[in-house]
Structure formats: C-alpha cells, structure tokens
Amino acid sequence: MAELVFFSGTMDCGKSTLALQMDHNHRARQRVGLIFTKLDRMGESVLSSRLGLSMEAHEVSDDLDFWDVVVEHLTHGQRADYLICDEAQFFTAVQIEQLARIVDELGIDVTCFGITADFRTELFPGSKRLFELADRVQVLQVAALCWCGARATHNARIIDGVMVVEGEQVVVGDTAAASDSLVEYEVLCRRHYMRRMNSHAARLASATPDVLPFDLDVCAVPPRD
Ligand SMILES: Nc1ncnc2c1ncn2[C@@H]1O[C@H](COP(=O)(O)OP(=O)(O)O)[C@@H](O)[C@H]1O
Ligand SMILES: Cc1cn([C@H]2C[C@H](O)[C@@H](COP(=O)(O)O)O2)c(=O)[nH]c1=O
C-alpha cells in the first residue's frame, strides 16, 4: 500500500542526501519519480545536498497544485511511481493534503523531507500538516550534533554571531560552517537552545569563566549516539 512518509529533523542532518539516495535507488530499478523542492539554498528548481550532489527538481510555488500536476502527468501517458519532496516544511497545509490524496487515490508513494520547527521552535505549516497526516514520521539515523556533542534537536538563527528568537519565519540560509551571509543557522541541543548559547557564545563564556561559571561540566557531555 502506498504511504505518505515524512523524514523530519534539524537542518544539516542529511535529509537532502537521503532524498537523492532514495531517488537514485528507485531509478536504478527503472522506477520513475517526480522530484519537488522549494527554496533550496542552491537556487530554483534544484535539490541539493551539502555532500555536493544535486539534481533538477520541480520548484513548488504556493499556488502549485500537486494533484493537478500528477494527474496531468499521468493523463499524458507518463509514469509516476513515487514523489520525493524536499524542503516540505515550506509547503502549504493544502499542498500536504494534496499529497495525501495522491497517496490514497492514485496509490503513489510520497516521501517528504523537511525541518520540523523554525528558529523560534514553532512548527512550519508544511511540517505541522505532515505530522497530522503522514502514515509515518521518521527521524534520520545520523544525528546532527550541538557544539557540546549532544544530539542537536533545535535550529538556532544567528545574526552577527548572536542567536536571535524574533524575525521572519522564512529566511533561506546555511549552517554557520558553510555560510558567508549575515543570517546563518546553527543546530543546538535543547539545553543550549534554551540558554541561547550558540558556539560563539560558548567560546566567549569559556574565555571569561567569571561571567558564566555554572555550566562547563555540561559542555563535556559525550555524544549520545
Ligand atoms: N565533507 C563531508 N564529509 C562527510 N559528510 C559530510 C560532509 N559535509 C557534509 N556531510 C554530511 O552531510 C550532512 C548534511 O547533509 P544535507 O543532506 O545537506 O542535510 P539537510 O538536507 O538535512 O540539511 C551533514 O550532517 C554531514 O553528515
Ligand atoms: C530554522 C530555519 C531554517 N530556515 C531555512 C534555512 C534553509 O534554507 C532551510 C533548511 O534547509 P536544510 O536543507 O534543512 O538545511 O530552511 C528558515 O527559513 N527559517 C528557519 O527558522
């Protein structure tokens, strides 16, 4: 039976890489897929991974109707065995409902990839609807890590080295290590997200131990997996 599956996690945990691998494995067995993305860091109509791989994809605009696109595709005698949707957090709730209908009425597997929550810890609209409708929500096996070594669970937005918790929900960008723009992101464990302690703040604190003496033992927490 066809399924709607949501691979969800923080930024930089390997979602796009998995999307590309999944498509590769299907294509290697002559299965035909439709690939969608929205607002990829590398530009329009591309699905890209930080490992350097990328592929062409249909860019999803707010008014794109997945049902119409797939039905038209099939009506023209073309095959669609599966859909892969990256950056699905940016899709609208209605678009997620269209994807669920494609699974249920056309029997086509739909696999979505996206971050769960924004830099304020609020669910994105697409992710929220996926949590509500998906047959399965899967966490990726390889964890992105906080600077302290714990599993990263939250996405922080950093401006000029400082973590912010107010602003527009959508600002396309990259993690600090790879970014040369003003706005960048850093993944953190919940403890350090709540304390607003990104790696820059932690470096400052360890250089001036009198300011924040409470917590240096926490920084030595070993990775959990
Ligand atoms: N040079 C590298 N060598 C090995 N793995 C890397 C390298 N650069 C990035 N990665 C892996 O790629 C992951 C990010 O993959 P990506 O698919 O772009 O993430 P996401 O789509 O979840 O933001 C990192 O967590 C890391 O595991
Ligand atoms: C936390 C957060 C992220 N974004 C943007 C930043 C990136 O362009 C994407 C996530 O891409 P990735 O492949 O998962 O790294 O989302 C945003 O717009 N708002 C946020 O709060």
Question: Would you spell out the secondary-structure blueprint of this structure?
Answer:
Layout: E1 4-9, H1 15-28, E2 33-37, E3 46-48, E4 54-56, E5 58-59, H2 66-75, E6 82-85, H3 93-106, E7 109-115, H4 125-133, E8 136-139, E9 154-159, E10 162-164, E11 183-188, H5 190-194, H6 199-207
Parallel strand pairs: 1-7, 1-8, 2-5, 2-6, 6-7
Antiparallel strand pairs: 3-4, 9-10, 9-11
The chain binds adenosine-5'-diphosphate and the ligand Cc1cn([C@H]2C[C@H](O)[C@@H](COP(=O)(O)O)O2)c(=O)[nH]c1=O.
Task: Quickly list its features.
six-stranded parallel beta sheet; elongated; 225 residues; three-stranded antiparallel beta sheet; disordered C terminus; 6 helices; Rossmann fold
- Can you count the helices? 6
Considering the protein shown, what is the CATH homologous superfamily of the largest domain? P-loop containing nucleotide triphosphate hydrolases
Strand content: 15-25%
Q: Mean pLDDT score, rounded? A: 92
At CATH level 2, the architecture of the largest domain is 3-Layer(aba) Sandwich
Radius of gyration: 19 Å
Oligomer: single chain
Query: Element order, helices and strands?
Result: EHEEEEHEHEHEEEEHH
CATH class of the largest domain, named: Alpha Beta
Category from helices, strands and their pairing = alpha/beta
Give unreliable regions as ranges.
Answer: 216-223
Active site: 87 (proton acceptor)
Catalytic activity: thymidine + ATP = dTMP + ADP + H(+)
Binding site for substrate: 170-173, 185
Family: Belongs to the thymidine kinase family.
